[in-house]
Design a protein that fits this description.
The complex is a heterodimer of chains A (155) and B (170). With 155 residues, chain A is mostly helical. Helix content of chain A is 37%, strand content 2%. Chain A has a domain at 30-131: 10k-s Protein, Hypothetical Protein A, Chain A, CATH 1.10.890. Chain B has 170 residues and is mainly alpha-helical. Helix content of chain B is 41%, strand content 6%. Chain B has helices at residues 33-40, 45-67, 93-106, 115-126, 132-136, 144-150; strands spanning 5-8, 68-70, 164-167. Chain B has a two-stranded antiparallel ribbon. Mean pLDDT of chain B is 65; it is low at 1-28 and 135-170. The chains are: A mainly alpha (155), B mainly alpha (170). At the A-B interface, β1, α2 and α4 of A face α2, β2, α3 and α4 of B. β1 of chain A pairs antiparallel with β2 (68-70) of chain B.
Chain lengths: 155, 170
């Protein structure tokens, strides 16, 4: 069993994303992603949908991941994102936008925000939030953006 | 730029099935690794952007789980247990997309995978951790190819994204 506080260290991902010129937004930020999620341009919205779904599906893989002997790789209290049996794309997108608007996301990277938002939207049963200190020390100790996709060739 | 209809369809026990927009002139939903490859190589930028998002969302999630640490300094996923270790250097979404396409073309089992499993396996193959455990036991902590295939379509209650059809035409 995992004891003590767990700090979700920084995902540390910034995304320099050459978005639709009509928007010209920087999708490396949480706010930029929220804008993409509500923008009418299909390309931006597709990126929003894809990213959020990519997070959800991968979180589900971690949730269910077992060793060959059947033991779970991650104990239940350590799971962060547990999507329900049904997830609606629009709900996913709107949920993220609501979350971004109600949190101070100015200093969050896109990855930090997406992961935290989905952790709040789809908390795992039995998750010990006291060990996931995402609020007090959301991304401490990870050294900042260390994985930065290059700008300009995303589309 | 065309509009899409996105449907999420259940297809496996292990994780969520992924259904992506139907490609131009094709009625079917994108649920397989092949479908995703077609999306990633689509001429339409909006299609490719969905591919970008899926791959990137999956990648950042693996990094998030790698980064979780306890207050005593231990990582929740021990270094030896990590499956995916993305580099610190930069990467482009376009390159990642191209790498997925290369992986799809060269991975013998890719054509039997659904999109969800393919994305995870691609990332795990492409950014395999260089640690003792993975070196010793190639695909530990679990053999993802065997595991994913064995659990594909088994009707497990963890099946998610089932029966969701959501038109996104705007």
């Amino acid at each position: 069993m995992v004891r003590g506080r767990v700090a979700l260290a920084a995902v540390g991902i910034g995304l320099g994303f050459c978005a639709n010129p009509a928007v010209a937004q920087n999708l490396s930020t949480a706010g930029g992603l929220a804008e993409a999620c509500i923008f009418r341009d299909e390309g931006d919205r597709n990126f929003c949908h894809g990213l959020l779904f990519g997070v959800v599906q991968t979180a589900a893989i971690y949730r269910d991941m077992r060793r060959r002997g059947g033991e779970r790789v991650l104990p239940p209290q350590a799971l962060v994102v547990c999507p329900p049996s049904r997830v609606d794309l629009d709900d996913l997108r709107e949920g993220y936008v609501r979350w971004a608007r109600s949190h101070n996301v100015a200093r969050m990277t896109l990855g930090q925000a997406a992961f935290n938002a989905l952790a709040d939207m789809y908390p795992c049963r039995g998750r010990d939030d006291s060990i996931f200190d995402r609020r007090d020390s959301p991304f401490g100790g990870f050294g900042g953006d260390s994985f930065i996709p290059r700008v300009g060739d995303s589309r | 730029m065309k509009t899409h209809s996105i449907a999420f369809l259940a297809s496996l026990a292990f994780g969520p099935a992924l259904a992506l927009p139907a490609l131009a002139q094709q009625a079917g939903d994108v649920t397989t690794a092949r479908d995703l490859a077609e999306l990633c190589s689509a001429r339409d930028a909006a299609d490719r952007n969905l591919c970008n998002g899926v791959l990137y969302g999956a990648l950042i999630t693996t990094r998030a789980y790698n980064a979780v640490e306890t207050n005593n300094g231990d990582r929740l996923i021990a270094a030896g247990d990590r499956i995916i270790c993305a580099p610190n250097g930069g990467i482009s979404l376009g390159e990642m997309r191209e790498e997925y396409l290369r992986w799809y073309d060269t991975e013998p089992q890719a054509r039997q995978m659904n999109a969800t499993n393919a994305v995870f396996t691609f990332i795990a193959d492409h950014w395999r951790c260089d640690n003792a455990r993975t070196a010793e036991r190639a695909n530990d902590p679990f053999d993802r190819r065997v595991y994913l295939n064995e659990n594909d379509g088994g009707g497990d209650p963890t099946d998610i994204f089932s029966d969701i059809f959501r038109a996104l035409e705007r």
